């Protein structure tokens, strides 16, 4: 089997990427018990989020264009983030390069919060600011986040950022705040209106179709059928976190 390495400031081989631990770097201000609605998916206006659904994404590495950053740009625009120019800048989704050392072939994939079934960030949070909704989306309640960054260190995917500066021109549906931790929310504000994630939408519009969003609990959903028909990978599957984001072709 050929060796693969990631090229993103540091070089790691494919096995390291999939199996070795790393320290994390960066949710959404929303109370765990808050009533949310989703008419497009059959929930009544007064019905809470249910574990009957588990939202997830399947990312096809074979379809992900190495030079394309449409998913990153869409995420920034949707959530009011500025393009990352330094390591301390918030980045909810980033592109990671994979290189085959034997053939020289380079591919890339998006990396974001993996929305684990057993999220380490939730386990270490002293205030329960990090929490997982019943439908599998991992979020941060900004009202009770004290900025301790234990979750940043616990995340194996370097998926969390800390807000160091005062923020202006924020998006109404995506509240953020200085001194708090944040990461990919799987566009919860869109999902609760029956829409898809901004990154998946942008990828589809670009014609790559590398990001498939859907209900992992529904055997008839496109994502469930795809996962059953092809070999897919969970990053750091050895941790037993049962991630909501899966990858194909790595």
Helix content: 10-25%
> Structural class, please?
alpha+beta
Overall structural domain count: 1
Radius of gyration: 17 Å
CATH topology: Alpha-Beta Plaits
Order of helical and strand elements: EEHEHEEHEEHEEHHEHEE
CATH structural architecture: 2-Layer Sandwich
Describe the structure concisely for a colleague.
This protein is α+β, with helices and mostly antiparallel strands and 250 residues long.
Describe this structure in words.
- The protein is α+β, with helices and mostly antiparallel strands and 250 residues long.
- It has a single domain, classed as 2-Layer Sandwich (Alpha-Beta Plaits), CATH 3.30.70.
- The protein has 7 helices and 12 strands.
- It has helices at 14-19, 70-79, 120-124, 150-154, 188-191, 198-205, 222-229, and strands at residues 4-8, 10-13, 55-60, 93-100, 106-112, 130-132, 138-140, 161-162, 181-182, 211-215, 232-233, 245-248.
- The strands form 4 sheets. Strands 2-1-4-5 form a 4-stranded antiparallel beta sheet.
- Helix 2 packs across helix 6.
Q: Key terms for this structure?
A:
single chain, 250 residues, alpha+beta, 18% helix, 20% strand
Please render the helix and strand layout as text.
Layout: E1 4-8, E2 10-13, H1 14-19, E3 55-60, H2 70-79, E4 93-100, E5 106-112, H3 120-124, E6 130-132, E7 138-140, H4 150-154, E8 161-162, E9 181-182, H5 188-191, H6 198-205, E10 211-215, H7 222-229, E11 232-233, E12 245-248
Helix pairs in contact: 2-6
